[in-house]
Amino acid sequence: MDAKRGSSFAGAADVVAHAEAAAQYLKELRLACANGDKSAARRALRQAINELELARAMLRTGID
Fold it and tell me: Which residues contact 9 (CB under 8 A, 6 or more apart)?
C-alpha cells in the first residue's frame, strides 16, 4: 500500500480485520494438512473463504 497517499475509506479497518482472520484460518489449514486432518482442513478453508468473501463484499461497498 502506498503510505504517501494517506487516504482511506469507511470500513477499511473492517476489511483488514477480515483479511487477517482469513490469514489465521489459512495457518490453521496448513497445520491441519500437516497433521493429515482432512476435516479440520476443510473447515479452516471454508472459514478462510468466508472471511475473504466478506472482505471483498465490504471492499466493493466501500468503493461504490
Answer: 62, 63
Residue 43 sits at φ, ψ, to 5 deg, of -60, -45
End-to-end CA distance of the chain: 20
Q: Is the pTM of this model over 0.70?
A: yes
DSSP assignment of 15-55: HHHHHHHHHHHHHHHHHHHHTT-HHHHHHHHHHHHHHHHHH
Mean pLDDT of 22-42: 98
Count the neighbouring beta carbons within 10 Å of the beta carbon of residue 38: 10
